[in-house]
Amino acid sequence: MKIRTDFVTNSSSANFTLELSFVSETGKKADFDLSVSPETCFSNDGDMTADCISLTPELVDGEVCFDGAPAFQAQSIEELGTMIFEAAQIEGWHGEMKDPEGDVLRDLLSRHNPSKKEANEESFFFGKTFAIDDAIDYAYIEDADHLAERIEACGGKLIRTPSPDGDYIICSDGEDAGSEDTRGDVPCVGEFEILARLAEEEGVFDDEEEDEDDWEDDDDWDEDEDDDYIAVSVRNVAPKTIFRFLDACRKNGITPDNLKTVIVKNSKFGSGDSAMWVECDELLSAFESYYEEQGEDRNPDKLQALVDYVKSVPMLPVNDNEYSLPDEMPCAWAQSDNKLIKAMQKLLDGELSADHWMGTLTNEYRIDVKKKTIENREVLYFGSL
Fold it and tell me: Which residues of 353-366 are buried (b: 16+ CB within 10 A; e: fewer)?
């Protein structure tokens, strides 16, 4: 089977998506999802017009690496996220470059203006004293005076010297938030958590309406200039999406110590000249051959047998307008089990409203964090008529 990892196409009718999932040992999960397209494409972070997006883990000397950097030596989820999103690449980017050399997530978290509204007594900060230590090398906190203004606007207080009278000591993300500080019985709270809670209360990452007309009239973008099509890291252009992912990790208690599985999916969905699909008749024919081969061992409930067959991710004939797919490849149902049952019943009864299901080509990586292994497969997900 031909394996493609770049997903690059010259067609403007394709959409590319990077999905990332962190799963803890207790089953808690945090998901990241970002799409780009050669056509006009907008996300919560603004213009996402580009040729493709991808992230590729690899094993180097027994370590799982992203862009050559060992991933699971990170001391915090924020450090791990920084490494991964730096390695996640967007090719052919001609959207807005917020700061190609800086850390846009840190900038948004640390430089937002204090809230002007009245402090809420239910705020995490209300009535609490937080201590910051000048001896600590913070990754996100740049200006303690500005941080103090933001905390005070939420009803709290920031002091510069750790004190046993304080409620929390702000630790760097390399330390264990929630642990007992050695200078007393004052618990630590991570700097990312502090800034995330402030950002949440200040509405830093609230959804904003994007004005597409403003972008279309932007004189800085000219599709005839090759210099506008560059490679950028996800870290430099998608701070809001990254924040929501890291904040979900924080809220679900996902840490490097309890992280069990990391799932990476690079997907391409095409329409028109980039379309990929599975013919309904070809699926049914493949199943009938399989069903006949089972002989006496086959399930007498043909519908259930068909559902189980589709769930097994069978090799099926596939079709695409770019002629880049093999004749057949593993195919998986993309929708719910309930929709699968209904669709297969209609297939058996000849009542489907179309003769094909649209497909999404996905290159999947499943990383076992503890065993330091990577499973890779390329699958065509189908399900939309």
Answer: eeebbbbbbbbbbb
Q: Strand, helix or coil at 296? A: helix
DSSP 138-197: -SS---HHHHHHHHHHTT-EEESS--TTSSEEEEPTTS-TTSBPTTSSPBEEEHHHHHHH
Count the helices and strands in the chain (H runs, E runs): 9, 21
312 within 8 A of 350, measured Cβ to Cβ: no
Rg (C-alpha) for the chain, rounded Å, is 25
Q: Note the pLDDT tens digit of each residue in 73-131.
A: 998 999 999 899 999 999 998 766 655 556 788 887 876 777 667 788 889 999 999 99
Q: At residue 212, what is the residue type? A: E
Q: What angle do CA 342, 348, 354 make, to 5 degrees?
A: 70
Region at 157 (left for phi over 0; alpha for psi -120 to 50; beta for the rest): beta
Candidates 209, 184, 225; CA nearest to 94 is 225
pLDDT tens-digit readout, 279-330 = 999 999 999 999 999 999 999 999 999 999 999 999 999 999 999 999 999 9
Contact yes or no for 23/260 (Cβ under 8 A): yes
Three-state secondary structure call for residue 51: coil
Structure tokens at 186: 């004052």
Q: Which amino acid is at 39?
A: E
Q: Is residue 43 a contact partner of residue 243, using CB atoms and an 8 Å limit?
A: no
**pTM across the whole model:** 0.82
